[in-house]
Structure formats: structure tokens, C-alpha cells
Fold Mitochondrial arginine transporter BAC1.
Amino acid sequence: MEETSGHKEYVAGLLAGVATVVTGHPFDTVKVKLQKHNTEAHGMKYKNGLHCTARIVRSEGVRGLYRGATSSFLGMAFESSLLFGIYSRTKQKLQEGLQNTRPQPQVIIPSAAYGGAIISFVLCPSELVKCRMQVQGTDSLVPKSSRYSSPLDCALKTMKTEGVTGIFRGGLTTLLRESLGNAVFFSVYEYVRYYMHLQLKAASSDHNDLIDVGIGIVTGGLGGVAVSIDKLLYF
């Protein structure tokens, strides 16, 4: 097992979390809008995701797609850093004494599930704030008196009206989602990465950083797809 520096995984996870929010938050905003307004009896109806996106940009500008992103940046950066760090360190401990270099499910699954359970305590409050900020937008459906001026204002008002437990609403579901989801993600990631390296090594002796980046993109993407399917089936 190759040893890594104490902070490398945490920094890599932090950067991955920021990149995730930059690219994924607009899609998440549209998803939340569609889920809320298209399920209300007298709510606003969007024809599809494109119609929803166009309406947001027209009424709020591009920044409307990133409404609630502040809490996501903070939450995802910290959560992703913690997840990768905990997963890597736990995996190293569980692999001690094992000679087999192949991915071991008895190592990957508990390491990923443990990391997912820990980060759920960070993710749950940040997601709650993010969703409430996304939903309010500038729509007339939300009275001005009920609007949040910032993610911090949203968090403070939630705790004031609902107590500390209010900020952790849906915590158990989040814990289960993150534990199971990350077990699936890292399992797919580790196995696909291992077999891709084997195939490339057999095909050519040349191996460089660019190839590693490509493998990382492919394996991370496949892991993300597997997690999405798992979450749809589970919930």
C-alpha cells in the first residue's frame, strides 16, 4: 500500500468539492425549483428544465442559478475534504497486513460508509440552507417577510424558529444516503480504476500524469452515475 502525505487527500477533496459546486449548483437549483413548484396545487409550473432555467435567468440573472451557493461552497468543500481524508485514512488502516493489491470490498465499503456517515453531519445543515435559499428565489410565492437575506440569516432563523434540531431536519435520511451512496461510489471508483490501470499497463509501458487524470475523470464519472442510480432506487 502506497503511503500518502497527511494532508494530500484533504486538499484534493476540498478542491473536488469546490469544482462540484461550480459545475453542479445551477443544475441543482433547477432540480429543486422543479421539485417544489411543480408539485404544489397552486404553484408555478415549469414545462421542463430548460424552461425553468430560462425563467430563472430572465428574472434573476445568471446569479439566480447560484442562489444558495455560498452554503454549498462551504459545506461541500469541508464535506468533500473530510470525506476523502477519512476514507483514505480508514482504508489504509484496514489494509494493514493485507498482501493483495486488488480492491478489497471488506476495506472499501466500511471505509466509504464511515466517511459518508461522518460528513452527513456537515452536509445536512448546508443542504437544508441551500434548498431554502434556492426555493425562495425572487418568486412572488414567497412573501418578503419570509425571505432570507443570506445563508447565515436562513440558518439563524431556522434555529430560532425550529431549534437546533431544525437545522438537522432529514438528518437520518442524509446519513443513510451518504453512507450507502459513498460505499457505491468508492466501490465503482476503485474497481474501475484498478482494471483500467491493468489494461493500460498490459497495452503499453508508457504511463504519465495525463493518463492518470483521464482515468480519474472516467472512474469518478462512472462512480457518480452509479451513485445517482443508487439514490433513485433507494429513495
